[in-house]
Amino acid sequence: MKAEKLTKESFKDFGEILTLEEVAEVSSDSEFDWYDTAQAIDLSEKCCTGMLICRDRSKRVSKMECHKKTSEVLLAVSGDTVLSVAPAGDSLENNENIRTFYFPEGTAIVMKTATWHWIPFPVKPEDARILVLFRDGTGGDDLNFKDLAAAIYIDE
Q1: N or C: which end of the chain has fewer CB within 10 A?
Q2: Which residues pair with 72 in a beta bridge?
Q3: CB atoms within 10 A of CB 146
Q4: Residue 67 and residue 145: Cα distance in Å, rounded?
């Protein structure tokens, strides 16, 4: 499977990209600028963050996970990665709806609630770091895994 370019249009079935592309120009006279980059994010009052360290490994996806109680925000802090996803509600009976996106350093995305995904793969042979934000308690009560009928391999 070849990684696609991450764009607003290509990622719309899985979530949205937090981007400054559509923000109106503001004056640079002020001390700071605030950009509202996303619509409402389906999180709870209490959220937690974590740092995901993605190791260099075979780019093979044999299972996926989803969170049915929360959306998930990913911010690529260091290192370009590739991220495999499938739409919320997909049975994963076959691989026809799985897509893989090039997820560059400095980019942030919001995955829709229950979007299937797997741990991103670093593009280079060094660790990549991804800041994760979702509902507090997700790691304890909302990790849903499913094996794929056949593994997929991501082309370099």
Answers
A1: C
A2: 111
A3: 15
A4: 9
- Going from the first residue of the chain to its last (156 residues), give the mean pLDDT of each consecutive group of 10, the final group possibly shorter: 91 85 63 66 81 96 96 95 96 95 94 96 96 93 95 90
Split into its structural domains, the chain has a count of 1
Domain span including residue 124: 4-21+41-153
**Domain with 17 in it: what CATH number?**
2.60.120.480
> Which residue has tokens 């590739």?
82
Distance, CA of 123 to CA of 71 (rounded, Å): 25
Q: Mind giving me the DSSP string for 39-54?
A: S-----SSEEEEEEEE
Q: Residue 45's pLDDT is what?
A: 77
Of residues 26, 38, 6, 12, the one with CA closest to residue 107:
6
Amino acid at 51: M
Determine the Cα–Cα distance for residues 139 and 96; give it in Å rounded to an integer: 28
pLDDT tens for residues 25-56?
A: 666 677 776 666 666 677 777 889 999 999 99
Instruction: Characterise 56 by phi-psi region: left (phi > 0), alpha (psi -120 to 50), beta (else).
Output: beta
In 70-139, the DSSP E strands lie at: 72-78, 81-86, 99-103, 108-111, 116-117, 121-122, 128-135
